[in-house]
Amino acid sequence: MSDSTLIQSPEFQSFKSSVTRQRITVEGDAIWTVYDTGPRSVRSPLLMIAPLAATAECYYKQVLALSSKGIRVLAVEGPVSWTEGKWCSSFRHLLDHLNLDKAFRNREIRRERERERVVVVVMCDCYVRANVTVKGHITR
Q1: Its pTM surpasses 0.70
Q2: Which residues of the chain have a pLDDT value below 70?
Q3: 52: closest CA among 27, 34, 79?
Q4: Residue 75: beta bridge partners?
Q5: Cβ distance 125 to 49 under 8 Å?
């Protein structure tokens, strides 16, 4: 499947048309991109953080499948951060902004304070072809 075919696929178009993209600014200049699906009453969702070489859209298949089963899923793309501490601080502010008690996260936990709010970590990069979603640009 070519890059343009994937982006024009009915499944990807369903994701783009049914899941609202939010841009959330925390700490003044840290902008997070968030796709929030499932019941908002769930305050401990699955949080899927995009890898460095991709956007939050790389999880579109997982988001569609899990949200159709009534599971709250947040696919997020973090801001540019030059230090681990700045990223973790920004992440805590994002959890506060979203009013989340705890989260099930798909990436590594490094800071102790962050560990208090994250219940389970699943280590994975779930995209098949990174060149399709490299920061919103199609590469060859």
Answers
A1: yes
A2: 1-4, 103-140
A3: 79
A4: 35, 48
A5: no
